[in-house]
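Reopening this one. Same input as before:
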Amino acid sequence: MRLHPPTLQGKEEQKDHEYLYWEFHEFGGKQALLKGNWKVVRLGVNDNPQAKVALFNIESDPGEQKNLIDEYPQKARELEQLMDSVRTPNRNFNF
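Same output, byte for byte:
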């Protein structure tokens, strides 16, 4: 018997999320948070958990080619603080 979430079956709509957070521990460690059209990314987290972030507007720059941190430092700080606050520490996956 296979179970499928109701959203995948078209029976129920999934609630919209205020933001999405994810992390990868491979390739030096990476964190990212997406909120609206704004995405903040931190690279090299394994060596420096507080490494500087990059800020992108994925609507106008879907390829994430232009770091907008200098133009929108407050937005970068806001998303960086949110990213830091939502991470759940885990002894098996720790930066």
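So the earlier flakiness isn't reproducible anymore. For the record, The chain is about 15% helix and 25% strand.
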